[in-house]
What we know:
By secondary structure, this protein is of the alpha/beta class. It has a six-stranded mixed beta sheet with strand order 3-2-1-4-5-7. It has a two-stranded antiparallel ribbon with strand order 6-8. It has helices at 2-11, 13-17, 26-48, 66-72, 85-94, 134-146; strands at residues 56-60, 77-82, 101-105, 119-125, 148-159, 172-173, 196-202, 210-212. It has one domain (2-214): Rossmann fold (3-Layer(aba) Sandwich). Strand 4 (119-125), helix 6 and strand 5 (148-159) form a beta-alpha-beta unit. S-adenosylmethionine (SAM) is lined by residues 1, 5, 17, 60-63, 66-67, 82-84, 87, 106, 108, 125-127, 130-131, 191.
Amino acid sequence: MQRDWDERARKDPFFYIDSARAWSGAEEFFEAGEQGYRRLVEPELRALGVDPCGKRLLELGCGVGRMTRAFAQRFGRVVAVDISGEMLRLGRSYLAGVANVDWAQVSGVDLAPFQDGSFDVAFTHLVLQHVPDEETALDLVREMLRVLRPGGVFLIEFNSGPHQADGGGRTAAGSARRGGATRGGPPPDRPPAGVSHMAGGGAGRSPGSRGDVGA
Ligand SMILES: C[S@@+](CC[C@H](N)C(=O)[O-])C[C@H]1O[C@@H](n2cnc3c(N)ncnc32)[C@H](O)[C@@H]1O
């Protein structure tokens, strides 16, 4: 896993992270992270009554920091982790000067460097469908829950349906009971552009389910 993602990072990181469009450059790519935050994250946090200000967020599979930058502008501290040292190297460089981000390489199967209950929010986007087997994906979800403080919030986005070429992704939000990894989706070297699901919830409590919010 790590070698593949390092290679992708060296070859064409924006494409391998998200092939939904042909990126004109870093500005457009990072603006998509900002838009992603507003579309996928903001409504969920609002629905759960969470104000990001001063909070500590873990981002699993941060890539080159596309969403990380949007998080850093709102959260107190962001810990951005990835299996790929090359992705992290690029992330550090793109976000040079952003003081409230810590970058860390992880094994790909756990979040061992982090203590139980040490984050307010745990987030992952376009990562779990790339994990080679469902058991590992579920282990990673368990790890995200482990590192959340009681009452903390997780937001998990992953491709869960057949690939759609039109890039018209939709999201569904729900409680912890509706979350989970699924089989299928694009092959590992083909980032998703189709249906994805956002499962969000509070650790230790179950927020109400919300329907499709569209894209
Ligand atoms: C499709 S990219 C998404 C990057 C970022 N979340 C975004 O939306 O811009 C997937 C990222 O997850 C990382 N990744 C893949 N499997 C992982 C794992 N098991 N643990 C941690 N990171 C992983 C890859 O190195 C890559 O940076």
